[in-house]
Amino acid sequence: MTADASEPLAQIGVVGMAVMGSNLARNFASKGHTVAIYNRSPEKTRAVINEYGHEGNFIAAETIEDFVASLQRPRKAVIMVQAGAATDAVIEQLADAMEDGDIIIDGGNALFTDTIRREREMAKRNRHFVGAGISGGEEGALRGPSIMPGGPVESWETLGPLLEDIAAKVDGTPCVTHIGPDGAGHFVKMVHNGIEYADMQVIGEAYHLLRYAAGLEPAEIADIFTEWNKGDLDSYLIEITAEVLRQVDARTGKPFIDIIVDAAGQKGTGRWTVKEALDLGVPTTAIGEAVFARALSSALAQREAATEAELPAGELSTLEALGVDKPAFIDDVRRALYASKLVAYAQGFDEINAGSAEHNWDIKPGDLARIWRGGCIIRAKFLDRITEAYENDPNLPSLLLDPYFTGELQKGLVDAWRRVVVVATQLGLPVPVFASSLSYYDSLRAKRLPAALIQGQRDFFGAHTYRRVDMEGTFHTTWSGEREELSY
Question: What is the model's pLDDT at position 2?
Answer without folding.
Answer: 42
